[in-house]
């Protein structure tokens, strides 16, 4: 786990725009340019609102004395790019001011949580919520007095959220945003799509449209924000990884092999693409690749060929080597 603040270029842009618009000489053209930036993405609006709130919080800090503040205030506009200089100084103050405030209030600075391939781990958050990361997964987490946000960078996470009506718990994954209303749910960001499944409680999933999910419901959406046809996998199967298992119900072979390879540093490939549509069912231990592959060979008309340490090929049964 990393505890260093993660780079946030959108926040930096929001700070620069906030300061520029506060200047007396902000032009109409700049204000139009700001509106274009603001409406480019929902995260721009969220970042700008956050900066405004942060700025209000910093009012009491004007009377305080600390080293970073003095260093930031040493900057003076010496060129026509004075707003760039002001923004740099204010960004220092903003970051240090928030850090000071959050430390005094016992609030966590934005953190990155991640686990390596083949691992899974539970992390407890400052608000009492917890998140369990599956293999090769990473998230950015920010807990503030008015909002709780998680960005799923890649992988799969199971959330158990502490209820707090004053602070929504929001998860962004790809082009979607999931808002929790005190519940337990899973988000799995895959290649080309994201899956959201609710175990208990209620969540709202917002992309180009909005859908509300209750217990045992799920939805998937594509990278372009379009909702996809429901797969309706049992929630116990979707979250079986928390027990160290992979459970498939008539799953395509190529999809099943992709899931197996997530837990191991091995390349698993099909020699014949026509094998991809074969279906497989069963429960498999995620940490025992050989056992999973042996089971595949028993269930389906295929054989497993190991080429070296990291290359595994699935061949059609009886097909001679080329």
From TrEMBL:
<feature type="transmembrane region" description="Helical">
    <location>
        <begin position="83"/>
        <end position="102"/>
    </location>
</feature>
<dbReference type="GO" id="GO:0016989">
    <property type="term" value="F:sigma factor antagonist activity"/>
</dbReference>
<keyword id="KW-1133">Transmembrane helix</keyword>
<dbReference type="Pfam" id="PF04773">
    <property type="entry name" value="FecR"/>
</dbReference>
<dbReference type="Pfam" id="PF16220">
    <property type="entry name" value="DUF4880"/>
</dbReference>
<keyword id="KW-0812">Transmembrane</keyword>
<keyword id="KW-0472">Membrane</keyword>
<dbReference type="InterPro" id="IPR006860">
    <property type="entry name" value="FecR"/>
</dbReference>
<dbReference type="InterPro" id="IPR032508">
    <property type="entry name" value="FecR_C"/>
</dbReference>
<dbReference type="Pfam" id="PF16344">
    <property type="entry name" value="FecR_C"/>
</dbReference>
<dbReference type="InterPro" id="IPR032623">
    <property type="entry name" value="FecR_N"/>
</dbReference>
<feature type="domain" description="Protein FecR C-terminal">
    <location>
        <begin position="246"/>
        <end position="310"/>
    </location>
</feature>
<protein>
    <submittedName>
        <fullName>Protein FecR</fullName>
    </submittedName>
</protein>
<feature type="domain" description="FecR protein">
    <location>
        <begin position="112"/>
        <end position="203"/>
    </location>
</feature>
<feature type="domain" description="FecR N-terminal">
    <location>
        <begin position="12"/>
        <end position="53"/>
    </location>
</feature>
<dbReference type="InterPro" id="IPR012373">
    <property type="entry name" value="Ferrdict_sens_TM"/>
</dbReference>
